[in-house]
Design goal:
Oligomer: single chain
Radius of gyration: 18 Å
Bound molecules: copper (II) ion
Number of strands: 10
Helix content: 10-25%
Largest sheet: 10 strands, mixed
CATH architecture: Sandwich
Number of domains: 1
Strand content: over 45%
CATH superfamily: PCu(A)C copper chaperone
CATH topology: Immunoglobulin-like
CATH class: Mainly Beta
Amino acid sequence: MRTALLIVAVLTLSPFSAMAEETVRIIEPWARASVLASRPGAAYLTIESARDDRLLSVESPVADRVMIHATENNDDVNRMVHFDALDLPAGKSVVLAPGGTHLMLMGLKERLIEGARVPVTLRFERAGEVTITVPVLGIGARGPTEDIQ
Ligand SMILES: [Cu+2]
């Protein structure tokens, strides 16, 4: 009995399960409320990785597919470009924000409603999978700290 308890304690304190997530930090994730479920949703966040890594794919139960997009501006026309992966140089903040790189939630199962919280799983080449909860802000929101609504 005492041996069994000790093993449980050791497993709980084991740093191995938490180690993967600590190499990447996800800062201030948020999504913008969507007008219609038929339109794709957008989510934004800042990623910091302690070592060189790459964001390989993103999934969410609320969308059929989550794509990594960049926004290119040519002659005042914004165009979205799909990335297969996103490079995360060690120690550098990679910012996904309106008008720039973003996560596009394609095929929403339902409209993203302000106040909802959406699970999103990010898969990194080295850090593995990290699941975060993304709050949905208003349709006109610019970010978690400067919501203009
Ligand atoms: Cu997009």
